[in-house]
Amino acid sequence: VTDNETEALILEGSLIKKNKPKYNIDLKDDKSYPFIAVTVGEKFPRVFLTRNRNIKGAKYFGPYTDAGAVRKTLEYLRKIFQIRDCKKVRPGKSKNMPCLNYHIKLCPAPCTGNVSQEEYGRNIDFTMLFLKGKDRTIIDRLKAKMEQYSKNREFEKAAELKNKIEDINKLHKDQKIFFTAESTWDFISTARDADDAVISLFTYRSGVLAVVNNFIINNTRYFKDEEILSGFIENYYSNIND
C-alpha cells in the first residue's frame, strides 16, 4: 500500500525466522523473493537484483515482493548516482571505449579509469543511504558539496549536483508523508483463516512508508489473535536493530 513502487523499496526489509517456534513465522516461498545486493567487498561495487543470499562480500537490502518494482528502483538509482551493473571491472584496463551506460550517464566507467575509487565509493554510500530511507542525509551532503563547487566557480559540477537534489526531492514529494520528518513507526495488521494467519508489517522511516512485509504464520488454529501478535512482536523485534 504505497503511492509508488520505489517508495516501497527504499529501506531494508527484514525476514525473521524463529528457532523452534510453536507456530512458524515465515514469508511464503521466501527463496523466490528478490533482494538488492551491493558488493561492498569490491573496489568498485555493483548494485543489482538477486535471489542469491550467499554472494561473498555483499550487503543485502530486502526481501521485496515485487521484482519489477526492484528493477525500476535500480534504474532510478543508476540515473541518480551512476553505479555499475557489469559483472567484472578492471580499473583502467579496458581495451575498448566505455559502454553505452557511460554515454547515457548511468555509469562513470571505472573500467577505463575515468573515476577514482574514492569518488565512486561516494556514489555507493549515497545509494545505500537511499535504500535505508535516509534521503535527507543525502540531500544535506549534496548541498554542501554543491556550495563548495559554486565557491570554486565549478558551475557545471554544481549544476549536476543541483539536478540530483531535484530528482531526490521529486521522489520525496511523490511519497505520502503521514508523520514528521523524524518519525519512526511500525504498524501491524493481521488476517487469518481456519489454520493460518498473515501479518502485515508497515514500516515508516523519516515519516515515509518505507516497506511493507507480509509474514505467513502456519498452524495457528488453537491460538488467539493476541497470542499470535505478541509472539510475532517478541520474535521480530528481538532480531532487528532498527
Structure report:
Helix 4 runs antiparallel to helix 5. This protein has helices at 67-81, 100-103, 117-131, 135-151, 155-174, 225-237; strands spanning 25-26, 35-38, 47-50, 59-61, 184-192, 197-205, 208-217. Mean pLDDT is 77; it is low at 5-23 and 25-31. The strands form 2 sheets. Strands 1-7-6-5 form a 4-stranded antiparallel sheet, with helices on one face. Strands 3-2-4 form a 3-stranded antiparallel sheet, covered by helices on one side. The two termini are 21 Å apart. The longest helix has 20 residues, at 155-174. The chain is α+β, with helices and mostly antiparallel strands. The chain is elongated and about 70 Å long. It has a domain at 144-174.
How would you summarize the topology of this molecule?
Elements: E1 25-26, E2 35-38, E3 47-50, E4 59-61, H1 67-81, H2 100-103, H3 117-131, H4 135-151, H5 155-174, E5 184-192, E6 197-205, E7 208-217, H6 225-237
Antiparallel strand pairs: 1-7, 2-3, 2-4, 5-6, 6-7
Helix pairs in contact: 4-5
Strand order of the largest sheet: 1-7-6-5
List segments where confidence is low: pLDDT < 50 over at least 5 consecutive residues. 5-23, 25-31
Order of helices and strands: EEEEHHHHHEEEH
Number of strand elements: 7
Describe the sheet with the most strands.
Answer: 4 strands, antiparallel
Strand content: 15-25%
Task: Tell the overall outline.
Answer: elongated
Distance between the termini: 21 Å
Oligomer classification: single chain
